[in-house]
Amino acid sequence: MASQSSYLKNSYEEYSPSKVPSILNEGRNGLSSSFQETLQAFTKNKLVFMNTEMENDIFYDTTVYTGSAGFGLFYFMCAITDENDELLKQSLSYINIKKQLKGKRISFLCGDAGPLALATVISYKLGNRVTKKPYRLPEYTVIAERLLALISLLSESPDEVLYGKAGYLYALLFVKKYIPDDTVIPPDHIKKVVRAIIKSGRHYSTQVGSESPLLWQWHDKVYLGAAHGVAGILYMLLQAHDYVDPLDMSDYVEPTLQWLLRQRLGSGNYPSSLGSPRDRLVQWCHGAPGFVPLCVLAHQYFKNDKYLKIAKECGEVVWRRGLCAKGFSLCHGVAGNAYTFIQLYQATKDPVHLYRAGCFMEWCVSARPGSQARAPDRRASLFEGLPGRLYLAEELNHVDTAKFPAFEL
Ligand SMILES: [Zn+2]
């Protein structure tokens, strides 16, 4: 059966240095005021819609990926940007840590670690700034203990970002970013998680006789991309570089990165999994977009220009093929792909990337007929639904510090 194209043709004009595009400001280092106004109107409208028509959908579950904590993360990002305690309280109202949550999963996105990490930081920030915390919000140290206790699930968890150890590592680093105190998240705790990921990668690589010194499988496949695969795991290890043994970095992590980057397809895209010749998906969870933050960070950390070159080449793939037919989501849609250009803009300060991010945002706002093949499974989910577009629109107001949620620190 002939498969439909997975993306729509990109008809946006190419960026030209000789003319300021209407979505950028004169300095080409931010959005134009007219495009900002468009985004503000979009956000205002959609927030009203979410809080009236979609309220029940928001509370589908407690997680960041599909549930209310995703909305919590949206308000958290707004609160941190504005140093706004009211927004922190609003974020908290979407985070449910009263019960044992799902109790089975360890990761930030789909497990208990996301709501617990968010609640820890909110409790810390409110405790330091306001005299009266919201009713029954425990001390941050108490919530952090629950986050640390999730390590009991480590050995039975997979390694990847969405459900596994790398997703737990993100949660720990997230708290560490806002609460550097070593008694809250002890460095040894983070190192334990890092070592477990590396051990598991060495074990599986040896078992299957791989050329790559580290290899991980998820559901019997070696995925390569950000959500379930090697790119996402390596990206978390690089973000955790302070806790990675330097010998592990040089003997395992960097050679694995080099092996991974050699798996590139002729088109410049990356396959979803090892041994799959298919070249179909260009979205954060599978394919080139997830390799950009990895290569940008690898360039900064290993000081090798080859990595930045690959990041830029991935950006070209996303520009050509990143207007996903599936729709606008962060995980497998156009909003997530817009972050590719934000990451490249932050790394290079070249306005072409900011322009491209703006074009993808415009696509998400205008939502032309036919630009979403089917409605998302969970329309109020941060990663699959409307909040992802709101998150991106908000972040474009402070593009120098924008971060792909639950992935970049
Ligand atoms: Zn996805």
Automatic annotation (TrEMBL):
Gene3D superfamilies: 1.50.10.10. Keywords: Metal-binding, Zinc. The keyword Protein biosynthesis does not apply. SUPFAM superfamilies: LanC-like. Zn(2+) binds at C285, C331, H332. CDD domains: euk_LANCL. One of its GO terms (molecular function) is metal ion binding. One of its GO terms (cellular component) is plasma membrane. One of its GO terms (biological process) is peptide modification. It comes from the Eukaryota. Belongs to the LanC-like protein family. PANTHER family: LANC-LIKE PROTEIN (PTHR12736), LANC-LIKE PROTEIN 2 (PTHR12736:SF21). This is (diamondback moth) hypothetical protein.
